[in-house]
Structure formats: structure tokens, C-alpha cells
Give the backbone structure.
Amino acid sequence: MNERIDKPEADDEAALEGLLRAAGSREMPPADVVDEVRQAVYGEWRDAVRRRRRSRFAAYGVAAGLAAGIVAAVLVFQPLRSPGEPIATVARVEGALQLAVDGSEEWHAVLPGAPLAKGVMLRTDEGTRAALDMHGLSVRIDAGSLIELQAGDRIALDSGALYVDAGQPASAPVSALVVDTLYGAVRHVGTQYELRTLRAGLSVSVREGRVEIERAGQTYAGTAGEQLLVPRAGEIEREAISPQDARWQWAAGIAPVFAIERKPLAEFLDWVGRETGKRIAYATPEVQARAEQMILRGSVSNLPPEQALAAVLATTPFRHAQTPDSIRIEL
């Protein structure tokens, strides 16, 4: 049954109107009082925000537990350009790379091509990987990682994993990179290597060249084919790791795209060999000479190195055969 609502009588409306006229209009407070109240409210809000801030790295642990809807809302913001002199560039992203500046808890999406300045923090979720170009160094960030760009030659790894490739041995010299971790500082000597945080400590895997680990006033060296476990306490442990081990595959999968347009086939093959850890073996000197003379056209998009190899060779008279440690090129 519907309830009936009676309308006010005309006499009641007239009485109410008379009371409002008698009360008159409300006086506005003086402008200086309004401004003082506004400043006080702003100050309280600003202090509340500051009180909520934790350390820069602790903020990531909290943010990782947010509901997916909230994370998705963060990603719709416009990509952020980090202020300051660029020390790196985002070369490639698979997923949703996020950036925060100057210890802020506000994370923003960052896209390929974005310049990055000192003090920037970058994080990846479990579905994201990214590659940076740091003045010739290829730095790749695995899923579930948090890093800070401390300087053009220094990165702090808080959690997750980094892969560093200093480039072809014959390429122009690049600046040495130091990666600071809770377990010591790691620097490379012309190499490919991976750093990965573990519950038991820090894993340092050397694919090529050599690394040095400075810890508690001592320096430890790791060479190609070694994986070092740096524990929270105690001696460093070592074991062997092959350049073709499956543990390197994530880094090859996020390798910066090789631009094949007008590049010699031989140069592309060198890139494939470096990314897969396999030696390029030509069947004959003539095959190698032909590969050096053949100029490629087109693009391999974001194909992983081995898929890119198959796609490119399918457009040429060359073919290939793989062994566990080499790629043989034939005609």
C-alpha cells in the first residue's frame, strides 16, 4: 500500500517564507579568515599524506597487495616523464611498467621511449618485464622486481632480478655499472650477468666476462659459467651454469628489438648468438661471406631471438641447424 504524503498548506508556506526573509542573507566571513581556514585545511591534508608515507621500498610491498581494480585505476594515468637529466631510456616493455619519482607512493605507467632520470623507481608485477638502455648498457628487469636508478652508473636492486648486458665485446666501451643490493655491491667487467634476490640471499649468475662483489670490506670475483650464492651470513657458494641454461631465457625474451632494416645478415646472427648464448658456426667461409654481404629488410617485431632467426632465414637461401651450444648456418 502506498503511503500518502500531504503537501504543506498555503498558510504554512507563507509562514516559512516570512521567517526566511526575517533571517536575511548569511554574511560571508572576511577574505583573510577564508584564506586562513583554507590554508589550515590544506596543511592538515598535507601532513596526513606525509604521515602515511613509508620508506620508498616498503611502499612497494603494500602496493603489491592492492586489489586489481585499484592497480588498473593507477594505470590509466598519462605516462609520466621523470624530471631531471635522463640517465636511461625505456627500450621495451611487456606488461605494465610503473614509475615513481622522489620517493612518492604515486605510481604511473611508463611506456617505451620514455627518458628516465636519477632517483626514479621502477617496478614490475608478475606479468611485466622491461628493458632499459643506460648509455649502451642493456638492463633488463624481470617480473616482480623493484629497482631505483641512483645514477647513470648505479642501480639499487631491492627485489626481483636484473640482467645486464654490456654489449658486444668489440663494441665501443661503456661505463661500468654498479648494482647495490642488501648483500653487497656488484660491478661488472665487460659481461652478461644476472642478479636475483632470494630468500636465502642473492644469486649472481655470470654468462660472459667477470663480475666483482664487494661485501663487508672484501671483494669476491665471479667468472663466466659461475653462479654465486651470496647468503645473508656465511661463505659465498659457487656452482656451474651454462650460457645456454634455461634460466637465461626470460632475459632473451625481453631483449630490445633488433632493427634488421638494411643490416647485414651476419650482424643479425651475432645478435641471436649473444641472446641465446650459442656460438654461430658457419658451414664454410663462403657461407659466412655470403651472410656478411646479404642486407636484410623488414622487421622482426618483438619476436624472441630463436623465433626471429627462423622468420628471417625463411626469407633467405640460408638454413640453420642447432646443437645444445651452437647454431650452424648453411646454404
In short: The radius of gyration is 30 Å. Residues 20 and 217 are 81 Å apart (CA to CA). The chain is about 25% helix and 35% strand. Confidence is low (pLDDT under 50) at residues 1-10, 31-80, 169-173.
